[in-house]
């Protein structure tokens, strides 16, 4: 900054000095010849001697003017220098060099950019953390399940799983147990026992609406063909028909009922009913080894018919609580509706029926044993039963005697 001012200020100071000198009173020696002649005297004699005197005075005036001009220039140079120094001293940031100032400005801008970049990066990281926390907070942990209980379906899926494992043993960890097979109708996040209770009430309320949609009809869900989600999940398709369309309507109705109860239920994507039998997410170790499931492993079953499941029950199940002994999920609440084929009872019904049959058989056996024991004790102890027999025999004898005395 100082070199620039040193280049500009000399011309400015010179102009200022000249302006100041122009305002000073002009000395008598520098006045024009006419003014000197008038001050010298008045009259004809003076006028007659004027030409000679004027020439001499003009020479003297020019000499004096020249000397004064040289003195003025000599005095201007130090004045200009002094003026520059004084002006420089009075200016702010006089000791700051323009290059340093530019460097400082560039450094300041760079630091601001870095700070802004760090701030943006920190905001992005914080946003990602908030999103992760939110996703974890609202991660589904409960779902509405349509259990698969038809032995034909479970047996066919077991055959597919065995065929795949024979080709790739590693995928044994990805298989869903037969007892866990189900169709997911709705997923939700329940963070407390109170919300679980509310969800159970919503499931109970949905029974009325489901019955209204069914109108007494039996819904047969037909499972046929195999498909996948991004080669990460293998599932059996539901054949597209009127019954599948009705199942989708039921799912939408239940979703609205749960949301009206304040339960975070449902997904943004459209409901696609499917029966999952294999998924890589079942094992973290497996996902490191197998990135994708090769669809050629189940080519032989891509159009296979697995069987029909009658719509009979919906369960509110936990994803993370300990499963039941048969492999099915922990169930908080259930609703049952419609009809179910007697030839296809589920495990719970079989166990209950067996218990009833055994209890009835045991009761009958105990009753029969008690009756026989009582009869034997009466015969050996002369109990009232023996007295009655004797009385009846005496009566028979008297009747025989009387008959003999008749004519």
From TrEMBL:
Molecular-function annotations in GO: protein kinase A regulatory subunit binding; protein kinase binding
Annotated InterPro entries: AKAP7-like_phosphoesterase (IPR019510), AKAP7_isoform_gamma (IPR052641), AKAP7_RI-RII-bd_dom (IPR019511), Cyclic_Pdiesterase (IPR009097)
Record field: transmembrane: none
Record GO biological process: modulation of chemical synaptic transmission; regulation of protein kinase A signaling
Residue ranges annotated for the A-kinase anchor protein 7-like phosphoesterase domain, each copy included: 140-337
Gene3D superfamilies from the UniProt entry: Cyclic phosphodiesterase (3.90.1140.10)
This protein's GO CC annotations: cytosol; nucleus; protein-containing complex
Domain A-kinase anchor protein 7 RI-RII subunit-binding span(s) in chain numbering: 343-400
Intracellular or extracellular location(s): Cytoplasm; Nucleus
Positions with biased composition (Basic and acidic residues): 64-74, 396-407
Main location (coarse class): cytoplasm
Region Disordered, residue ranges: 41-77, 371-407
Sorted UniProt keywords: Cytoplasm, Nucleus
PANTHER family noted in UniProt: A-KINASE ANCHOR PROTEIN 7 ISOFORM GAMMA, RNA 2',3'-CYCLIC PHOSPHODIESTERASE
Assembly with partners or alone: Binds cAMP-dependent protein kinase (PKA). Interacts with PRKCA; only the cytoplasmic form is capable of interacting with PRKCA.
Protein name per Swiss-Prot or TrEMBL: A-kinase anchoring protein 7
Gene name for this UniProt entry: AKAP7
């Amino acid at each position: 900054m100082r070199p620039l001012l040193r280049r500009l200020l000399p011309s400015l100071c010179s102009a200022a000095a000249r302006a100041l000198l122009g305002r000073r009173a002009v000395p008598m020696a520098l006045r024009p010849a006419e003014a000197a002649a008038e001050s010298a005297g008045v009259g004809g004699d003076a006028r007659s001697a004027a030409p000679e005197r004027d020439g001499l005075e003009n020479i003297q005036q020019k000499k004096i003017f020249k000397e004064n001009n040289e003195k003025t220039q000599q005095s201007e140079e130090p004045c200009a220098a002094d003026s520059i120094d004084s002006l420089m001293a009075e200016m702010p940031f006089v000791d700051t060099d323009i290059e340093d100032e530019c460097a400082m400005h560039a450094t300041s801008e760079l630091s601001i950019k870095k700070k802004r970049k760090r701030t943006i990066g920190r905001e992005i990281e914080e946003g990602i953390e908030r999103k992760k926390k939110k996703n974890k907070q609202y991660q589904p942990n409960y779902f509405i399940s349509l259990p698969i209980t038809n032995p034909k379906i479970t047996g066919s899926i077991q055959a597919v799983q065995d065929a795949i494992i024979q080709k790739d043993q590693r995928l044994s960890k990805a298989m869903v147990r037969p007892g866990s097979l189900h169709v997911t109708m709705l997923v939700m996040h329940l963070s407390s026992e109170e919300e679980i209770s509310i969800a159970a009430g919503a499931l109970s309320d949905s029974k009325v609406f489901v019955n209204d949609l069914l109108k007494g009809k039996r819904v047969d869900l037909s499972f046929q063909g195999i498909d996948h989600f991004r080669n990460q999940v293998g599932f059996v398709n539901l054949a597209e028909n009127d019954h599948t369309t009705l199942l989708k309507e039921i799912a939408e109705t239940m979703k609205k009922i749960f949301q009206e109860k304040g339960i975070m239920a449902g997904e943004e994507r459209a409901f696609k009913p499917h029966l999952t039998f294999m998924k890589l997410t079942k094992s973290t170790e497996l996902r490191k080894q197998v990135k994708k499931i090769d669809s050629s492993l189940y080519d032989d079953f891509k159009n296979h018919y697995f069987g029909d499941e009658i719509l009979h029950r919906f369960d509110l199940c936990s994803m993370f609580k300990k499963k039941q002994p048969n492999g099915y999920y922990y169930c908080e609440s259930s609703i049952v509706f419609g009809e179910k084929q007697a030839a296809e009872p589920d495990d719970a019904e079989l166990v209950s029926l067996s218990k009833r049959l055994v209890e009835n058989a045991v009761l009958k056996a105990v009753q029969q044993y008690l009756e026989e024991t009582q009869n034997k004790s009466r015969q050996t102890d002369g109990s009232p039963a023996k007295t009655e027999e004797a009385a009846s025999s005496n009566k028979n004898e008297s009747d025989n005697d009387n008959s003999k005395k008749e004519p």
